[in-house]
Amino acid sequence: MKCLALDSEYRDRWIEFHLANGTVEDSRLKNWRNVAWDQVIRIVAHLNGNTHKVECTGKGFRAFMNFRWGGHEYVKNGNGRLVPRKISLWTIGWTDGRQCFLKDIDFHTGQHVKGYIATLSQFMGHIHPLVRNRVLG
Amino acid sequence: MAEPTTRFRMIPQASTVEAVNTSAERLAAIANQEVLSTGAGNEADFGTVDISGGAANSLPVTVIWDVTDDGLNTLVEDFMIWMSSNDFDIAATVCKFQPLSGADQGGASDTENYIANGVVASYTWATMPEADPAAINLWPTDEGSSMVCAGNNGAADDVVMWAMYMAIGALETTGTYYGLTADFELQFSFKYSYS
User: What pTM was computed for the model?
Assistant: First the structure.
C-alpha cells in the first residue's frame, strides 16, 4: 500500500474537502487521493491565516482540481535586479471537462497569487480517479 | 503533500545512445554526469562562443531532470522551462532547445531521440521562451505528459531530458554571462506540478 503525503507536516497550512453528506475531510489527516472525490462539493484551503474557497457551482462543473507547483524561477526585486525564488504554489479549482478554472496560492504567504483558465489536457494526471469518467465522459 | 526532491544533471555529449535508452539507465548514474545547481561551478556551461566573425552558436549541452524523492506524491507533470530575463542586448541572441527521448521511444513526435556527440545540426530546435510558457514545453522521454511516482519517497518512473544551446547574435555585448552577474545575467527557470 502506498504511503501518501499529508499536510500535517506544515504549520498552519491545510485543505478541507467538504463532502455532500456533511463530512469534512482534512488534508492533514487524509491524502486527497484517498478522499471520496466524487462526493466533494467544496474545497477550503487554509494557508497561513488566509482562507480560499472553491464551490461546485460553476457552470458545467464536473469535478474539483487540487495540485501543487514546484521548481525555481528568477524574479525582479525592488531594485529591478533578478533574484532566485523557489516556486511553491498550491492550486485549487474546478473543471468543466474541457477547461480548468484555477487559483494559485502562495505557500509561504498564503496570499492569492492569480486566477486563471487553462485547458484540462494540461492536467490530466491530476484528475482524481474517482471522477475520471465524469470529467472525461 | 511535501514537494518532491529533484535534481538536474548534465551528461557528456559523448554519452552513448545505450546510456540513455531505457528509463532505468536514465535514472541511474550516467558516466561523467555533473549534477547542476545554482552554486558556483555547478552551472551548465555553454563554453565560449566566438562572434568575431558574426553570429555564432555554442555547442549543445544535454540536461536531465528527475525526481529523486517523490515526497509521498504520486505524480509529476506540466514540465516547463524558460530563460529568465537576461542581459543580452541583441534580439537574435536566444537559447534554442529540443526535448529528447531515448532510443526506447520509437516514432518520437514531441521529442527527438538522443544522438551521441550531438551538435546543432543533430536536432530540430525551438526558441526557448523568456517567460513562463504556461503550458508544457518539456516531455518525459516516453512523451507522456506526466511521470508516475511510487509514493514511497522514491524516484519517478522516468526523466525529462533536453538539449539546448545558445545562439549568439552578431554584435552581442561580449563578456561572461553567468548567474546574477550585473549586466551579464543568465538564468533558467523550471517548474512542474505534482499531486
Answer: 0.93
